Amino acid sequence: MALLKKTDKKPLKLPTRGGAGGGVSSLRPQQIEKLAPCLDTCPAGNDIRLWLNTISQREKSNLSLEAAFDLAFRLASANNPLPAVMGRVCPHPCENKCNRKEKEGSVGINSLERFLGDWALDRKLKLSVLAPAGTHSEKIAVVGGGPAGLSAAYQLASRGYKVTIFESLPEAGGMLRYGIPDYRLPRSVLDAEIQRIVDLGVELRCSTAIGKDVSFESLQKDFDAVFVAIGAHQGKKIRVPGEDGPMVYTGTEFLRQVALGKPPPVGKKVAVIGGGDTAIDAARVCLRLPEDAANVSSRLGADVTLFYRRTRTEMPAIEAEVVGAVEEKVKIEFLAAPAKIVRDESGKVVKLVIQRMRLGDPDASGRRSPVPIEGDLIEVDCDTVITAVSQEPDFKSVGGALGATRWLEADGWGKTSIPKVWTGGDNVNLGLATIAVGQGRKAAEAIHASFRGEEAKVPSHGPEVTAQRIKIDFYEPKPRAERTHLDAETRLAQPHAEIEHGLTPEQATEEASRCFSCGLCFGCERCWMYCTPSCFTKLSEHAPGSYYKIKLDTCDGCKKCVDECPCGMLDMV
User: Helix (H, G, I), strand (E, B), or coil: what is residue 207?
Assistant: First the structure.
């Protein structure tokens, strides 16, 4: 197709380039922003590349380091109002797809997220809003104060709506508070980030159970929309003989009691069943509890063995947490499933019977199925059994239109078939806290759109830019910044101390500079330097992705700029 000038709308006479037939190339460079793989894999919808570039390109944008950190926090918290929390608990799937891993290791995105969260808390930075409080008259009820509910509440409050969170437990946070131990997530951090959301005018009503203190029907009547995010706090049973009775707890029940300051007694020997994060957390918490829960001066630490029916390869728990548990001397028995809990005449747990397993064919999850080895049973002594095999929501207690629901079904925007009701989080499907944050955000956007007579839309992106498109050798080698942590002996001696430490400002600055800026111009100047006809003009004001303007009327189609672009933003079109 002929290229047209804006002035006379006539075809340009382009210079003939060499080659067979001496034809004229119609291809010209265009700046086409691509989708970075970190953006594509962040369930919360964070524009990771943008806030990394805000730090790394601060000097080109005439920002001080402090101003760059402040702005990066505002960008990061726009889709995730809990960066200090997620920087501690998110298993960062974004890093698994980072193109930098093809050089010397992925960018420490999660470490930088935590740094920005902690930076903002230290400087008492507030969350950004899109409209003043009271801009809109509609009222929204949020049922559940976990990550999904908090995320939805922030997004709606930031748009000027009146939001009320109903939380059945004494404090908000959901599984962040009642399922994740304080040595992984300090309560002061969680409290501060929740308070920042409340400060936007959100009403938080704790110890208020829907279905008991307030009916679900009244919410549907009194509010213009209801966002349901009760989570999945109900642990599933393993259904073996001897399970019912004292000294057998589900993982969620056990961790909740510990978080409430009422740790149950566990005795000297504890058996934990499961291979997920709840099982690992329960095992490590047992190491930190006194032998006699009523006597905190008694020695710390039970003898803990975790039994998992598959192998280490199939274990769904976060790898770093598994490593931490092993360092703390939690024993793990693989290919082992519970068959029976043995009690004595008084009902006391005395043994656990274990069925040895082997791996068969893959199941629906893609993992190889555990198959019992007939006749291969062993007995282990134990005082307590903690079962952490799965969880589910408790809609029966909520009642109303949800009373007979097992799992809530919704479309991609969280809209259910129930009038006025949206949903998100673990009561839809068990998943990561960052997934819940993303679902809360999307539901809030859909609620806002429905009130305003608009249509919620997914942001459009160009094609994903892969490592094959990046000129990896252009980038200077830089080692990845790793977080330090307390050694096993120290952390068991200080059971409530946070294990991992954050990055320093210097480390954060250097780590942000490791970002390739995949698919977005970062002002490297190579297109400008290699363009013989001087097609590229530097812009006077710089920002990530905006450094040059292309003058196509002087371009001869040589393609040098595209060949030299390290980040993959330039295409010949």
Answer: coil
- Dist CA 381 CA 271 (whole Å): 9
The half-sphere exposure of 199 on its side-chain side, counting CA atoms within 13 A, is 13
Residue 291 has a pLDDT of 54
CA-based nearest residue to 442, from 152, 92, 47, 94: 152
Q: Which residue has the tokens 């109900």?
A: 234
Distance from C-alpha of 432 to C-alpha of 115, rounded to nearest angstrom: 20
Q: Which residues pair with 60 in a beta bridge?
A: none
DSSP characters for 316-362?
-S-HHHHHHHHHTT-EEEESEEEEEEEE-TTS-EEEEEEEEEEEEEE
Residues of the chain by 3-state class (helix, strand, coil), percent to 5: 30, 20, 50
Roughly what angle, to the nearest 10 degrees, separates helices 48-56 and 109-122? Answer: 70
3-state SS class at 424? coil
- Cα angle for residues 128, 55, 77 (degrees, 5° grid): 25
Residue 300: the pLDDT is 60
165, amino acid identity = I
Cα–Cα dist 180/186, whole Å: 9
Length of the chain: 573
Query: With a cut of 50, which residues of the chain have pLDDT below it?
Result: 1-22, 292-299
Distance between CA 189 and CA 82 in Å, rounded? 9
* CATH T-level fold of 139-233+393-451: FAD/NAD(P)-binding domain (3.50.50)
Note whether 189 and 80 are within 8 A (CB). no
CATH architecture, domain 39-127+472-511: Orthogonal Bundle (1.10)
User: Per-residue pLDDT tens for 412-457?
Assistant: 999 999 999 999 999 999 999 999 999 999 999 999 999 999 999 9
| In the chain, domain spans | 20-33+520-572, 39-127+472-511, 139-233+393-451, 234-390
Angle at 115 between CA 109 and CA 121, to 5 degrees: 140
Radius of gyration of the chain (CA): 28
Q: How far is CA 22 from the centre of its chain?
A: 55
